[in-house]
Amino acid sequence: MLIEGQVVCIYVFYQLYLHPLAAFPGPFWAKVSPLWPVMLLYNGQRHRAMRKLHSQYGDHVRVGINTLSICHRHADYATRGYGTKFVKDKAYDFMNNDPHVSSFASERDTATYLRMKRIFAPKFSQKAKK
């Protein structure tokens, strides 16, 4: 039977070496503790910490157990551009006060988002009258 210390060691080993995001650099505590990002938010220093981490580790930084921060000029298109497989995080569900109302900013379902985009895209094109 495993004792608590062994379980913790196995968990830390998994997070550091076997997790799908293990190859990305980042602070030790961000990789193994779910409380690290919470403390940044609580202290109100998340924006400064992100800037510092990106200057230290580069464009791709692991900032949570399952979270990757990408700071690259093409990242927006790669993660939200045409044909991407990325889905918006569950945090977007809390952007609206009414769960029955959605917008471009908060819509997570790709099919619904594309339907909304098809309706409004002509209004934002170069050919739209001013």
Automatic annotation (TrEMBL):
GO terms for molecular function: heme binding; iron ion binding; monooxygenase activity; oxidoreductase activity, acting on paired donors, with incorporation or reduction of molecular oxygen. Its cofactor is heme. Keywords: Iron, Metal-binding, Oxidoreductase. One of its GO terms (biological process) is secondary metabolite biosynthetic process. The keyword Iron applies. This is Tryprostatin B 6-hydroxylase. It comes from Neolecta irregularis (strain DAH-3). The lineage of its organism: Eukaryota, Fungi, Dikarya, Ascomycota, Taphrinomycotina.
